[in-house]
Specification:
With 167 residues, the chain is α+β, with helices and mostly antiparallel strands. The chain contains three helices and nine strands. Strands 1, 2, 3, 4, 5, 6, 7, 8 and 9 form a nine-stranded mixed beta sheet that branches. The chain starts with a helix and ends with a strand.
Amino acid sequence: MLRKVLLTGLLLLGCSAAVVAQPLPGQQGPTAELLEGGGLRLSTRRTSDRFPDGNGLWKVELHRGEQLLASWDAASGIAERQTADRRWSPGNAAPLPAGDYSLGQPEPWGDDLWFDLQPRFDTTRSALGIHRCYPGTGCICMPSRAEIGALAAWVKRGRLSRLRVIN
């Protein structure tokens, strides 16, 4: 009864219950059920959103087919270098160039983790990776330790070996 009253109240306010965001099934890491079926793909993309300090908000996303299993916040490049040459100028603090990358397994990096990224296209950019930092200076930087830990679990247990930078 209470659920019906709450739902009716939401509808009267012009809201729908579908607006309430549900957590993604793989957000905290893989489960045996989510690992079944293979077909996992990892990508990252620039969004139009910003972190409070003005740095661009990127998303690292895990899909199976069209289903989004997990999505983590990230940064790539610093705010004032978002339009710099992304393909040919190493050390310029620009975001990662769009394209496909070979993705290494997570490795210890100080007290944190590093995932090596090897471009599968011609570029002079080097020493690229995914790691925990903020803001980024050219890698994919994930500010949250819990989220990079969940990504590491997916990469290991899901045998992920590729990353696509979409835009």
